[in-house]
Amino acid sequence: MKNQLPEWAQCLEVQVAGFDLKAWRENLGLKQDQAAALLGITREQYGRLERRQHPLDQRTKLACFFLKNLCKFA
């Protein structure tokens, strides 16, 4: 099967499939400008993503997943 994720990475696909960016931000207690800074984008770009004016790409979802799990250890 072409482009199938290895077994160890398949859980990541499940974690990000139904991802809600606003819920992620609120769960971490972040304001939009803080979330944008963590993701390396402007607050305006972040707002458009949160309002779903632009599709959320896999890299952004994975970055959010990483940051959420990183916060558990901080």
What's the name of the CATH homologous superfamily?
lambda repressor-like DNA-binding domains
Output the number of helix runs.
5
Number of strands: 0
Low-confidence stretches: none
The helicity comes to: 55-70%
How many domains, as an integer? 1
Topology pattern, helix = H, strand = E: HHHHH
Gross morphology is: globular
The multimeric state of the shown protein is: single chain
Kindly provide the name of the CATH class. Answer: Mainly Alpha
What is the third-level CATH name, the topology?
A: 434 Repressor (Amino-terminal Domain)
The CATH architecture can be named as Orthogonal Bundle
- Give the mean pLDDT: 81
Computed structural class:
mainly alpha
Please give the alpha-carbon distance between the first and last residues: 39 Å
- Main sheet attributes: strand count, strand direction, barrel closure: none
| Alpha carbon gyration radius | 13 Å
Strand fraction band?
A: under 5%
Protein model, in words:
- It is a single chain.
- The protein has 74 residues and is mostly helical.
- The mean pLDDT is 81.
- The radius of gyration is 13 Å and the shape is globular.
- The relative contact order is 0.15.
- 64% of the residues lie in helices and 0% in strands.
- The longest helix has 16 residues, at 58-73.
- Helix 3 crosses helix 4.
- The protein has a single domain (19-73), classed as lambda repressor-like DNA-binding domains (434 Repressor (Amino-terminal Domain), Orthogonal Bundle), CATH 1.10.260.
